[in-house]
Amino acid sequence: RECHPQAFSAWSITPHADALFDPVFQARLETAPQSKECLGCHTTGFDATTGRFAFAGVTCEVCHAPYREQHPAEGTLVAPPDELCGGCHTATLAEWQSGRHGERQVDCTACHVVHTQ
């Protein structure tokens, strides 16, 4: 937030920022038999053994890993979009893999701007 105010501002009004508090998600969470499993995609840093998470929503750390003291000198790594996005968007990943975009390796971020969605 402090170092990347434009990216944070753009992200803060996206569905990822509100992933935990979205009314549709909250309604489904109440009736889900395995509700803890849902939190793995709707929070950041979810620990299934304790049921706790570091942050509500899908925050910067999901894609960029936790902040390191060496940043920005050493930068940060980001997983390939099919692995990263596909971890939660499993149906979309399967569709991508079997379609023309997947065949041609046109990944998620070719069309979907990550910070603004």
Protein model, in words:
With about 120 residues, the protein is mainly α. Helices cover about 40% and strands about 5% of the residues. The chain is built from 7 helices and 2 strands, in the order αααββαααα. Strands 1-2 form a two-stranded antiparallel ribbon. The radius of gyration is 15 Å and the shape is globular. The chain starts with a helix and ends in a 14-residue tail after the last helix. The mean pLDDT is about 85.
Q: Report the sheet with the most strands, covering strand number, pairing sense and barrel closure.
A: 2 strands, antiparallel
Please tally the β strands and state the result.
2
Rg, rounded, reads: 15 Å
Alpha plus pi helix count: 7
Helix content: 40-55%
What is the helix/strand order? HHHEEHHHH
* Physical arrangement of strands within the biggest beta sheet: 1-2
Between the first and last Cα atoms, what is the distance in angstroms? 18 Å
- Which percent band covers the strand fraction? under 5%
Structural class: mainly alpha
